[in-house]
Amino acid sequence: MSRSISILGATGSVGASTLDLIRRQRHEWRVVALTAHSQAVELARLAREFDAELAVVADEACLPALREALAGTGIAAAAGPAALVEAAARGADLTLAAIVGCAGLAPTMAAIEQGGTVALANKEALVSAGEVMIAAVDRHGATLLPVDSEHNAIFQCLAGNDIADVRWITLTASGGPFRGWSPERLRAATPQQAVQHPNWSMGAKISVDSATMMNKGLELIEAHHLFPVGSQRLRIVVHPQSVIHSLVEFRDGSTLAQLGPADMRVPIASALAWPRRIDTPCTPLDLPAIGQLSFEAPDEDRFPATRLAREAVEQGGAAPAVLNAANEVAVAAFLAGQIAFTQIAGSVARTLDGDLPRAPASLDDVLAVDALARVRAATLLEPA
């Protein structure tokens, strides 16, 4: 029997990789809903190819173009935040939550509230709303499958093991395109240089996060919620080859690591098939060709983002949501040429200084904290 799936963020890199895998086993899947931010023509093309029941664009101005592109197909078209939530709430067997930013919070929560399986690729869901989201997972009996390569690796390493036996969880980081750069070079780094990740093909924002190491800091916060071993048992190591995606050390001294190519289709396939395995077209690892695997400690003087993230998760409350919002504002300013690369972390740190809002108890609270933090971050930006 086929399984049903909804893909929130179908035109992004994670959505495209997911659809590539589904295309290869088309008979096993029924596509319920596909969503995109504004790429109406591409969304319509995908909805036609996969015979989706519903296509939704977040940008309401794109709805006429979507309707025109779907004319005569019988595929429903809708637009706006409420339509995204409705798409997520359609109760598919598996919902892939891959909408970037806080725009993905409400749809992800709607999917969780159906009590089904949610493959999570939206960082903000757990960074900004971790306690709220995990409480909803428990309350509705949902299953959360991590899609990020690092968290999926941890998930695989923990399979069949008791989390109480974990001594350390180690997330690996490539170090990004600026690993080894001097402080002087970092100050002059351009957006074009920052988005050239050495190992992974990603969007501009997440590529900049990788360059600052904030991506790894956000992943540490996510791991704190997904794998409750305590933040002091979470650590980061720089591994430039991006072959080992994470490691779990147990109290008997055994360490399990998950290895794989730098291809998001590997963790996505793990989530699609769980608890089984499926074939992928990914290039197999060739360890002799790779030659060596190296590791180094992160340099938090040149890349302070991981320290800021750890401090935020230890502070708790609204701090992680403020960190995430401030980082989004700072990264956007850097990409627009308004601030220097090295000012991104400083802007986040200034936004976190002073009194923070009370701990969010609901999704509305999280969104309120996010909005407030964005205003504060924007006022604290310093020109390059």
Structure in words:
This protein starts with a strand and ends in a 5-residue tail after the last helix. The chain has 384 residues and is of the alpha/beta class. It folds into 3 domains: 3-146, Rossmann fold; 151-315, no CATH class; 316-384, Rna Polymerase Sigma Factor, Chain: A, CATH 1.10.1740.10. The mean pLDDT is 95. The chain is globular. The chain has helices at 13-24, 40-49, 63-69, 81-88, 105-112, 123-140, 149-158, 183-187, 191-194, 204-212, 214-226, 265-273, 287-290, 305-315, 319-335, 343-352, 363-379; strands spanning 3-8, 29-36, 54-57, 76-79, 94-97, 117-120, 143-146, 166-173, 234-238, 244-250, 255-259. Strand 6 (117-120), helix 6 and strand 7 (143-146) form a beta-alpha-beta unit. It has a 7-stranded parallel beta sheet, with helices on both faces. Strands 9-8-10-11 form a 4-stranded mixed beta sheet, with helices on one face. The chain is built from 17 helices and 11 strands.
Name its key features.
single chain; 384 residues; alpha/beta; Rossmann fold; Rna Polymerase Sigma Factor, Chain: A; 3 domains; seven-stranded parallel β-sheet; four-stranded mixed β-sheet; 17 helices; 45% helix; globular
Describe this structure in a few short sentences.
45% of the residues lie in helices and 15% in strands.
